Amino acid sequence: MTSLTRFALPLLASVSVLSMTAAHAEPTQELIDAAKAEGTLTTIALPHNWCGYGDVIAGFKAKYGLDVNELNPNAGSADELEAIKANMGNTGPQAPDVIDVGLSFGPAAKDQGLIQPYKVSVWDSIPDDAKDAEGYWYGDYYGVLAFGVNKDIIPYAPTSFADLMDSAYANSIAIPGDPRTGNSTMMTVYAAGVAQGAAAGGDALNAGITYFKDLKENGNYVPVNGNSQNLAQGTTPIYFDWDYNLLAMRDTLAGNPPVEVVVPSDAVVAGVYVQAISAYAPHPNAAKLWMEYIYSDEGQTLWLKGYCHPIRFNDMAARGVIPQDLMDKLPPAENYAKAVFPTLDEQAAAKSAIADNWGKEMGVN
């Protein structure tokens, strides 16, 4: 796969102008009718507070009148593929129609014959390097690694990985969990390595491990599973996560305490999630209609409302259809302009390095 550096361009740069027909395409009436005849869509791993999925699901139901059967909202990407495998011959309510998974799981699902191709009507506005050419999987949204800061505890927020080494942040910094088992945590370690100037892949990951080892030895890193509660209570007032999770948390806390979300200036590392339709979907037409909805301007805007950058962001920005009030709630646009998107090969090298070296370097099992 080619590197996804296209998204590192300024927001309105290098955007091809689509035809009005392509930009505003709608699903056919035949597809709508077929989906309504099926009556139900089964999703999996879509918590309502993730990327604004609560509003997305509600919008789909309101627009088309289908029921949505939601399986295991807190499942991970691997769980989603296992759910397809476990229900290959089952057309009941435990068989997912659609999946939303981390980038590496799209090609894996294709190789295993677990997904089927479908190209939405706005296919041409999805960047080529964020989709499978045959239509088996396609990027839906992305976020960047950031950290939230409890401003009651730390009035002057650090702005970089380098800043976090300062003794002013003793016993303050946490990551979401074990980077050997969580993608966002692994990518946080990866981003720390990028900030040290390391080459992409395993080198960046190993440099990130060294960074966190040093952060632990100087007393700034707290080896607990960081979460929004710990940040709000001040137990770990600096906490890493995807920007969309942190921004949603900031809004939920509503100033109690005040939270600043920082995209570190020395490493802006992004992660793409992808959509696909199960090869064994009990409701294939409902699944296709779901894809049409979430890739429409309406669906993409709802993701941005949930602080996830929709994959068609540049196209929508070029056409001036993104509400300004949504833009105003995001960190500065220039931060996102520096984003780098690790390739599948680079992520694979990072996973190997984290498995081999995190435990022994950090002194954990």
From TrEMBL:
Gene3D superfamilies: Periplasmic binding protein-like II (3.40.190.10)
Keywords on record: Signal
GO biological process, one term: thiamine transport
Keyword check for Signal: yes
GO molecular function: thiamine binding; thiamine pyrophosphate binding
One GO CC term on file: outer membrane-bounded periplasmic space
Cleaved signal peptide residues: 1-25
Protein name stated in the entry: ABC transporter substrate-binding protein
Source organism per UniProt: Celeribacter baekdonensis B30
Organismal lineage: Bacteria, Pseudomonadati, Pseudomonadota, Alphaproteobacteria, Rhodobacterales
